[in-house]
Amino acid sequence: TGGKDRRSGLILTIPLCLEQTSMDELSVTLDYLLSIPSEKCKARGFTVIVDGRKSQWNVVKTVVLMLQNVVPAEVSLVCVVKPDEFWDKKVTHFCFWKEKDRLGFEVILVSANKLTRYIEPCQLTEDFGGTLTYDHMDWLNKRLVFEKFMKESTSLLDELALINNGSDKGNQQEKERSIDLNFLPSVDPETVLQTGHELLSELQQRRFNGSDGGVSWSPMDDELLAQPQVMKLLDSLREQYTRYQEVCRQRSKRTQLEEIQQKVMQVVNWLEGPGSEQLRTQWGIGDSIRASQALQQKHEEIESQHSEWFAVYVELNQQIAALLNAGDEEDLVELKALQQQLSDVCYRQASQLEFRQNLLQAALEFHSVAQDLSQQLDGLLGMLCVDVAPADGASIQQTLKLLEEKLKSVDLGLQGLREKGQSLLDQISNQASWAYGKDVTIENKENVDHIQGVMEDMQLRKQRCEDMVDVRRLKMLQMVQLFKCEEDAAQAVEWLSELLDALLKTHIRLGDDVQETKVLLEKHRKFVDVAQSTYDYGRQLLQATVVLCQSLRCTSRSSGDTLPRLNRVWKQFTVTSEERVHRLETAVAFHSSAEKILQECPEQPEAFNEMEQFDEIEAVGKSLLDRLTVPVVYPDGSEQYFGSPSDMASAAEHIREKMKLVSLKKQQLRQPEDTTPES
User: Fold this and answer.
1) Rounded average pLDDT over 417-425
2) What are the coiled-coil residue ranges (predicted)?
3) Which run of H or of E encompasses 573?
4) Is the N or the C terminus of the chain less surrounded, counting Cβ atoms within 10 Å?
5) Least confident window among 118-122, 223-227, 511-515
């Protein structure tokens, strides 16, 4: 109960009951109770109170004798509390005091009310008339808590020490083995520590907080080693638990590091294994837009698979960065090596994916330009294969301009194809740098041959189209020249017709004298020369149209009727011109003869010996007047007059006046002849 005798020895109370008492259980209980006090406390001895008030004498005697075997040295006094009705004297004939030397301790029989003679009332419980407060169930519960704490804490200390010592071993294999075992304490250290703190707080509270203002005695005070043991165990637990937390932290860090290392190797192994193998099998660029698009779609699927691993890479990189920021020197080198390895592989694989994507994009652009160029060449070829049947030179010029524009567009397209092809070839030449030792010469040769083949084919098709364009251009230029010749020939006919019209309408006058008539005759000859040049120019143009038609293997649409028109107009002009010349020459002869006669002096009659001259002049004048009234008759039977009737009357009037002068002159000359014979 915690009570003490006058020698400060602990009081051990053994309450006996009516039921049969098991000596074995009692012996075990006494051994347990006697193991609680310290050795110093045990040295002061024990006072044992055997409460036999509810038991039989034989049981009491057996218990007292048992104390000799259990605690003979520690027991100094045994007080047997007898019942109010004392046992039979025969029964109690056995005297304990006579057996003191044999028992080793003094035994007294005492009533409960007389027990205070040997033990102070304050050290006795209420059962024996004392004032000591004692609650056996409370003590039992606290003792159970204490024993549980002692057991768990001791076991926990052993386990923590085993874990901590194992983690401190220098042998790396043992360290790895201890980590691999993943050994954990059987109980939660936090729970045990909390239990210990609560127990210690309870002990301290019961010790220093008394009832009714007094100091409360605790049956589990320092003498019973409860509080010091709890405090010592708590200190040890805190120390070992702190070390254990560090071990767990190190173990968690090592586990995390191993997990990171494992994940890093998973990423690296996949990227360098299946990931790289996927890229190795994808080396083609396709032979068309559709094929390149199919390869791009396949590459996007590969990129999608890589993206999942790249996401793991990002997460791992963040975890490694967090561990590096923690600053553990022993793991820095390993973490940096893992980070570098992971980054190198991921960046290399990402570069390969980007290179492949750029290569496929360049191939798609190349095939797109090639397809556009092929369509342009097809369109140009279709235009060249259609026969040219233009209506006039302007449409030919428009068609020729369109042809030149298409050819220029083809040139630009071929230039763009060469640029795209060369760029693609340059990228393919760099493909070997990330082939992981794989010989891609054969695969690249196929791609290179395909690209060069496409460019050469386009070059040949373009060259063929250029040759056809040259032929078509020459043909179209010849057609332009043909149309020009036909137009110019028609213009020459028009000009010649205009000259003929001018000849008929304006070339009317015959002159008033010889000099004027000769001037008109000279002008007429020049006029005829112009007409002759116009006719010759038209003939040359028509001859050129014949040559061009033969070269073009076509029939001219206008030269067939232009030549007859030209010849017809020219013949009409020739007939008209000859008539004009004849009239002018007749007029010159008329004026010359008339002026000669009119200018002769009358004193020279010998000049007019023959009157035939006058007759001749009159005949010429009449002939000229007759011609002025006669139309020009063309080979086709048509007729045309020079000028208007009034113009012809005016010209005839000048002739008649001069003929009158000649007639008058003739009469004057005849008068002397007539008068001379008469005289």
Assistant:
1) 90
2) none
3) helix 559-599
4) C
5) 223-227
Instruction: Give pLDDT, residue 332.
Output: 79
Cβ atoms < 10 Å from Cβ of 614: 20
The residue written with tokens 């109960």 in the block is 1
Handedness of CA 382, 387, 388, 391 (dihedral sign): negative
Band (pLDDT 50/70/90 cuts) for residue 179 is very low
Across residues 109-136, what is the average pLDDT? 88
Q: 589: Cβ–Cβ under 8 A, 6 or more apart, which residues? A: 620
Q: Contacts by 194-202 with C-beta closer than 8 Å and gap 24+?
A: 195/145, 195/148, 195/149, 195/152, 196/149, 196/153, 196/230, 196/233, 196/234, 196/237, 197/234, 199/142, 199/145, 199/146, 199/149, 199/230, 200/227, 200/230, 200/231, 200/234, 202/142
Q: Which CATH architecture has domain 507-670?
A: Up-down Bundle (1.20)
CATH 1.10.10.10 holds for 3-134: no
**Residue type at 179?**
I
Instruction: Measure the CA angle with vertex 93, ends 91 and 95; round to 5°.
Output: 125
CA angle 314, 315, 317 (to 5 degrees): 65
Q: What is the per-residue pLDDT for 215?
A: 43
Q: Which of 615, 612, 606, 596 is nearest to 672 (CA)?
A: 606
Locate the domains of the chain by residue range.
Answer: 3-134, 278-477, 507-670
Q: What angle do the packed helices 612-629 and 559-599 form, to 10 degrees? A: 150
Phi/psi of residue 91, nearest 5 degrees:
-65, -40
Segment 620-626 shows an average pLDDT of: 82
For the entire predicted model, the pTM comes to 0.56
Question: Measured over all CA atoms, what is the biggest interatomic distance in the chain, rounded to whole angstroms?
Answer: 256
Q: Judge whether residue 166 has pLDDT over 80.
A: no
Q: What is the pLDDT of residue 96?
A: 61
pLDDT for position 412: 92
Domain 278-477 has CATH 1.10.730.10: no
